[in-house]
Amino acid sequence: MSEETWEVVDEIAGGIQAEILRGYLEAQGIPVWLSQEGAGRVYGLGIGVLGNVQILVPSSSYEKARALLDDYYAGKIETEELDSGDETENQS
Questions:
Q1: What is the pLDDT of residues 47-91, one digit of tens each?
Q2: DSSP characters for 13-42?
Q3: 3-class DSSP state for residue 52?
Q4: 85 alpha carbon, distance to own chain's centre
Q5: Torsion angle (degrees, nearest 10) of CA 76, 60, 23, 55
Q6: Cβ distance 3 to 58 under 8 Å?
Q7: Four-way CATH pick for 11-78: 3.30.300, 2.60.40, 3.40.50, 3.30.70
Q8: How far, in Å, CA of 26 to CA of 33, rounded?
Q9: pLDDT confidence bin for 14, thresholds 50/70/90
Q10: Among 12, 24, 39, 62, which is 20 to 30 Å from 83 by CA?
């Protein structure tokens, strides 16, 4: 039985954006591991080398994750529309 290997699918500056992307990928069923230099995490750095966060996914999910991130960066993410009943209530 072999262990799954993890690959860096993206590297970004800042932990907040990394957490957003983690949630997005995990909502699509892809496990995510975030990796940041220890000092950057301790001091809450969001810029420079210490502020970079690597987003890792299992090798078996790499292609799907890359496609999802490409769509995210291109603004192709579908948003859920409000129910038409909710809109009429707010207009009263």
A1: 555 568 999 999 999 999 999 999 999 988 766 544 444 554 555
A2: E-HHHHHHHHHHHHHTT---EEEE-HHHHH
A3: strand
A4: 32
A5: -100
A6: no
A7: 3.30.70
A8: 10
A9: confident
A10: 24
